[in-house]
Design goal:
Radius of gyration: 17 Å
CATH superfamily of the largest domain: Iron/manganese superoxide dismutase, C-terminal domain
Number of helices: 8
Strand content: 5-15%
Largest sheet: 3 strands, antiparallel
CATH architecture of the largest domain: 3-Layer(bab) Sandwich
CATH topology of the largest domain: minor pseudopilin epsh fold
Helix content: 40-55%
Bound molecules: fe (ii) ion
Number of domains: 2
CATH class of the largest domain: Alpha Beta
Length: 214
């Protein structure tokens, strides 16, 4: 996430229909191309008149948006957060069959949640408790411990490192699932790209020096 202005919408890392029947092509086209794409466009438009901030990385914008001029700070917070969260959301899904975390993530899940079933129940509980628009995020701290957090709107969990981001905005599921949020969550859970998620956090969980965020 060290990309900078001008930001580019990352292509979907699989075909639009690759996640069917769990997430169908129509839903993915709207979610990725329209909603995610709009956040990329908005972020670029916000920063275009401010060359001094165009060198900031996406992480820096998410972490330090409050230091920006008042006229753009709230919108940069929302749109940079959206780009960050959506990038992780789409890149950490993959077509069936389901995968499984590899060590060391599996060990950390067992230590914290008692196993995969414990993580599933905890993550589902947090996701379904999101009121309005927000995210349920499995994250790892600088100490290597896992935690599940709920964020409002497009806020990120930075400076914690997100491992999995479950989008609980209505736009993430309503075209296919309407009000059936439990079914959407279960679909998302089946599609998690666990090898990719493991790679995202193995250094932290192994207790190696903390990753630099900026
Ligand atoms: Fe979304």
């Amino acid at each position: 996430m060290d990309n900078r202005y001008p930001f580019v919408l990352p292509p979907l890392p699989y075909a639009y229909d690759a996640l069917e029947p769990d997430l169908d092509a129509r839903l993915l086209r709207y979610h990725h191309d329209k909603h995610f794409g709009a956040a990329v466009d908005n972020l670029n438009a916000l920063l275009a008149p401010y060359p001094v901030y165009q060198s900031w990385t996406l992480r820096e914008l998410c972490l330090n948006w409050a230091q920006l001029p008042d006229e753009i700070a709230p919108d940069v917070r929302n749109n940079a957060g959206s780009v960050f969260n959506h990038t992780l959301y789409f890149e950490r899904l993959h077509p069936l069959p389901p995968s499984a975390p590899s060590a060391p993530l599996e060990g950390a899940i067992t230590r914290t949640f008692g196993g995969m079933d414990g993580l599933y129940k905890a993550m589902k509980g947090v996701a379904l408790s999101v009121f309005g628009s927000g995210w349920a995020v499995l994250a790892v701290g600088r100490d290597g411990n896992l935690t599940i957090l709920k964020t409002k709107n497009q806020d990120t969990v930075l400076p914690l490192e997100p491992v999995l981001c479950c989008d609980m905005w209505e736009h993430a599921y309503y075209l296919q699932y309407q009000n059936r949020r439990k079914e959407y969550f279960n679909a998302w859970w089946r599609l998690i790209d666990w090898p990719n998620a493991t790679n995202s956090c193995k250094e932290r969980i192994n207790g190696l020096p903390a990753i630099s965020y900026v």
